[in-house]
Amino acid sequence: xxxxxxxxxxxxxxxxxxxxxxxxxxxxxxxxxxxxxxxxxxxxxxxxxxxxxxxxxxxxxxxxxxxxxxxxxxxxxxxxxxxxxxxxxxxxxxxxxxxxxxxxxxxxxxxxxxxxxxxxxxxxxxxxxxxxxxxxxxxxxxxxxxxxxxxxxxxxxxxxxxxxxxxxxxxxxxxxxxxxxxxxxxxxxxxxxxxxxxxxxxxxxxxxxxxxxxxxxxxxxxxxxxxxxxxxxxxxxxxxxxxxxxxxxxxxxxxxxxxxxxxxxxxxxxxxxxxxxxxxxxxxxxxxxxxxxxxxxxxxxxxxxxxxxxxxxxxxxxxxxxxxxxxxxxxxxxxxxxxxxxxxxxxxxxxxxxxxxxxxxxxxxxxxxxxxxx
Amino acid sequence: xxxxxxxxxxxxxxxxxxxxxxxxxxxxxxxxxxxxxxxxxxxxxxxxxxxxxxxxxxxxxxxxxxxxxxxxxxxxxxxxxxxxxxxxxxxxxxxxxxxxxxxxxxxxxxxxxxxxxxxxxxxxxxxxxxxxxxxxxxxxxxxxxxxxxxxxxxxxxxxxxxxxxxxxxxxxxxxxxxxxxxxxxxxxxxxxxxxxxxxxxxxxxxxxxxxxxxxxxxxxxxxxxxxxxxxxxxxxxxxxxxxxxxxxxxxxxxxxxxxxxxxxxxxxxxxxxxxxxxxxxxxxxxxxxxxxxxxxxxxxxxxxxxxxxxxxxxxxxxxxxxxxxxxxxxxxxxxxxxxxxxxxxxxxxxxxxxxxxxxxxxxxxxxxxxxxxx
Amino acid sequence: xxxxxxxxxxxxxxxxxxxxxxxxxxxxxxxxxxxxxxxxxxxxxxxxxxxxxxxxxxxxxxxxxxxxxxxxxxxxxxxxxxxxxxxxxxxxxxxxxxxxxxxxxxxxxxxxxxxxxxxxxxxxxxxxxxxxxxxxxxxxxxxxxxxxxxxxxxxxxxxxxxxxxxxxxxxxxxxxxxxxxxxxxxxxxxxxxxxxxxxxxxxxxxxxxxxxxxxxxxxxxxxxxxxxxxxxxxxxxxxxxxxxxxxxxxxxxxxxxxxxxxxxxxxxxxxxxxxxxxxxxxxxxxxxxxxxxxxxxxxxxxxxxxxxxxxxxxxxxxxxxxxxxxxxxxxxxxxxxxxxxxxxxxxxxxxxxxxxxxxxxxxxxxxxxxxxxx
Amino acid sequence: xxxxxxxxxxxxxxxxxxxxxxxxxxxxxxxxxxxxxxxxxxxxxxxxxxxxxxxxxxxxxxxxxxxxxxxxxxxxxxxxxxxxxxxxxxxxxxxxxxxxxxxxxxxxxxxxxxxxxxxxxxxxxxxxxxxxxxxxxxxxxxxxxxxxxxxxxxxxxxxxxxxxxxxxxxxxxxxxxxxxxxxxxxxxxxxxxxxxxxxxxxxxxxxxxxxxxxxxxxxxxxxxxxxxxxxxxxxxxxxxxxxxxxxxxxxxxxxxxxxxxxxxxxxxxxxxxxxxxxxxxxxxxxxxxxxxxxxxxxxxxxxxxxxxxxxxxxxxxxxxxxxxxxxxxxxxxxxxxxxxxxxxxxxxxxxxxxxxxxxxxxxxxxxxxxxxxx
Lengths: 374, 374, 374, 374
Fold this sequence. Notes:
The structure is a homotetramer. Chain A has helices at residues 15-22, 28-35, 42-52, 97-107, 122-128, 143-155, 174-178, 208-216, 220-229, 242-250, 272-283, 298-306, 316-348, and strands spanning 71-73, 76-78, 82-84, 112-114, 133-137, 161-164, 234-239, 255-258, 288-292, 311-314.
């Protein structure tokens, strides 16, 4: 494996370059784990392909001299709407793990969402960042355990919670299984109890999925209970169906993250982008709606915002940057996407984030198929 | 050729792995015969591709602790809706032929449909199974001959008959012809009379197809006659058109199997999945409708059930499992698909088979194309 | 180059096999000339691809014992609706040229349309056939010259004329130009005057296309004049637009051949199949409408007839058969397509050619895309 | 690198042949700069692919003996509607740069649009041409500077100005960056002041895009000011949105060029062709509308004119011709496209440029997808 870069080579000009370079800096089984998706990886492919089917539209000669990517999400001012999605186990690709990521995020003015399954404690990661961090929360077997973790995140200075609802069952991409991936024991999640609660024994004939995992999984009333007691606003991540989004808002959540878990849970789900407009239409203009899945370019950000997102989360590219060049790489990945966002906004005639609406997309003539690729 | 495996290698995690491995365990002409389809194999390809065009939808935070794949078909309780489709000549890939398959099916709680063209007698196969078996019936030149075979199946303990209507003409895939495939003489169907009835001589200028094969083929009144006298309920297999499905029900049949014979008869037919919803709509909610063709994943089962099937039949994968690891392989193939089905149900928010309806599929916005692949 | 085969190898089971084998029997420049299309060969590809987008539908258990492919076109009884399209210069691939083709056509009960640009005289070709032949007519610089050729064809026993309207400019596929193709001098068309009329000199600045070729090209009144005086019924070949088809009937022609000249004139035209239904709808049920372009399988014939054709013409495959195995190859190509047609009719539940209508095609649910291929 | 050809090899029969040959005559970084597009080159690919989705329609037996490609644009009589698009830095591929191009354009009767970023002075280029030239104008930091350049072009004999609105930010294709492309210093634009105005310093935190490039970019009132004072009619290039086209006409411009800058600015824009019909519909029949992007064949010209363009501009192919064979190559590229245009018009039944309307395109049946390619 190559050592981390300390300077960015001049040919690294897009996030995709980091994806390519990462192959030289990560052992193959780990790369398969990070880059893979579930099943036949249809949803994984759909996530990125969906953007290619949504052409942008240019507008010319507008006054953009006061242009800016600044925005606010959950009342937090942000330099730009590009967040780092919660991703487990940064220690797989970097010795400083999420602490390096946090430093890179701070350097690039990016809000970072720290995973429950981080390789460092949430307090360590908070200390490495700049204070603009949220904490992603998995269900901790009980309401009390989950609330305790939420309160701990609040104490550490996190600004919001992201409750992940779409992964009640652990999942390793098939290509990672075939490549022999296994989580190294020293990378066990730093934020979880050292001795996990023993799984309840299943009766004969019982299903590991239904009576096992789903028996322990949280439900709507658990999430409502948490939202009512949480010291921080809670977003629900993993929502695709508009009805689930509405139910989340009705349950007292602060918003939703439209996501299919990066194509890592149920293969066959649509691209998260393809679910976004219906969710926004269902929850109305004021609820917070974020989009996760397939963001690789600044133009993708414009498309997501045009379809209703307030901001977007970037998953795998942050790990590629981290693997290649540490905090520097993370910051560079974000900066590349931000610069592309500025260019895309300028060429689409949008001076501000609020200016980005459905008008930024090309509307084909009736009966015609909108696409930039065959 | 490699010997049958006695343990499942850890990298075998999907039915597709068996399809790949089968190449090492079956001579090429036999594999071409099993895996091939008619003509240019458009229908063969369509059968699997159709599932990729039907995205699923996830639902979150539902209570699935009582979830189960149990269901009933023709009043038979089943642990899950994954059946083994009737496939001819299991002796091509395993010395114990259908007896090994039956043992594997029993181990995986799968209903097995035994082919008229089995390499073992139906009584032997019944003895090797667990009693949950149906018998597939080809027309036996006459009403009396056909009824006799049906009655023999009933005596042997089979629970229903599957009458195949869509293959009045024998068909070998072109790739099998090119590979030199021929049925070894020792594999002649064990259930048919040792001396087949001589074909009637054709007049000069007569068509082998029309005056030959179709002259001997069964018709609607034959099938109605059989259904009226059969000791077992009869399903009609090979129906794609809704009008044919309705006519089958009107003729006294217990239901239909929507199928294009695995893409092995008329190339150019649509995917069987693409015909399913219209058939279900035509016959109503109570008739039994099964789907055969292209099932490779548990998510495919959800899609088929969401479009109206009561259960599905799996064809080629059972032979791949049988070829690679015998009864163990058959059982493993079914178990893999069943486990994927449980996961897919859990992520789609469906606790029971009855919960799987059109809501489990993604409905794109009007004017948009539903797809997970480009 | 390999010599012509005298027996058909067992692996030759479709027309496509002849296309492949032809490469061994024809020098590359000639093969490029035969197989190529104009421009980027989009229309060439569209012609065959169009069939893949029109799924057939099966029907089961019908009485087809009296089935037959027999039909009538222009009051001529035909054993089947598979005709040989007019193709120039058979001498490029066989020493006996169109005489061998005619013998093969006769052996396969196929109506042959002989090209004006045949390598043998129309009288020789008529003598080699069985009397079921039509003659394709190019404009001969003048009404009188054209009528003279028509009358000569009538005297030789041809049953109808096919006037080609869509190729006023000679065209050689770009791949043939690149391969160095040139018509050998000894293959100059046998039916044309030995000394062609000198081209009129163009004025400076005049266009070779407009003032040259199109200045000499026939027009609607010429064709009407010919139809009124022709001793034989005249079909107009090369029609795609429904308005042109109607005008042809109004001009006294006996029918039209929907064709884009096998993708050899204007690249960018739609598949001829995609124009067929509109032409049939425009001219009504009684006018003769034939389809030329992309027929490679018996199932293609069913699709074309289902969309309104009375019969179809097969172009390149006849030359492939001729190149590989002479008259035997021509007959075999036709027989293979005819046998596939019988099978397709049987599986689609059509006993007669008249039974083939739009019901033989799969109609997808509203909003769905009909296709057998992705 | 190969020397320029002095004769055209016989296998060079389409513009695409020059694209291929150019690889032998241009160093790879320069070819990447010329042939590349921005981002993932989706828009670049869309520009050419869009033509394949618009099938033409043939019409037969019409009287085209008086046919001609002659037309008028901005009251200038043109032998044909194929113009040379403004392209920067011809010196990259030829020692005589735009002077050679101008000679080739004159030989092929093609109107040439000279770029502000030409490697030769506009006066030199005018002297090398035949008087049928327009001048493309980039904003020159101020109204006065821009008007001065416009007046200089008028004095040199240019007939119109093309103001480029869609590239306020300089852009080099990513593949060119990766190939190490840099503009050689001796190729600095010959028409710009020798010492460029210093960029204003940005405040800390300011955006290079918004406060930098866009702070200096022209706006609608600047363009209206220019149009009011320009000695020449002004066309606006880089318009895709119909509202921008209408605004341009309202601002006093003579017309618009529908263009996405050859896929070199915002990747993700639709094909310019896909925006054309809406622009024409919005500005009405009399405004001048040109189409730039993806023209490679004469049939493409017919498609563009059928969708509303008065004429088309050809970009990269002129550089390919220039690189391969200098002025001769430029002239040959234009002549090839013109000859294809004549053929396409003849086969589509269009005698004149004015005859080319929507009827020249194939209209599929309702519910069907128009396409010549899969």
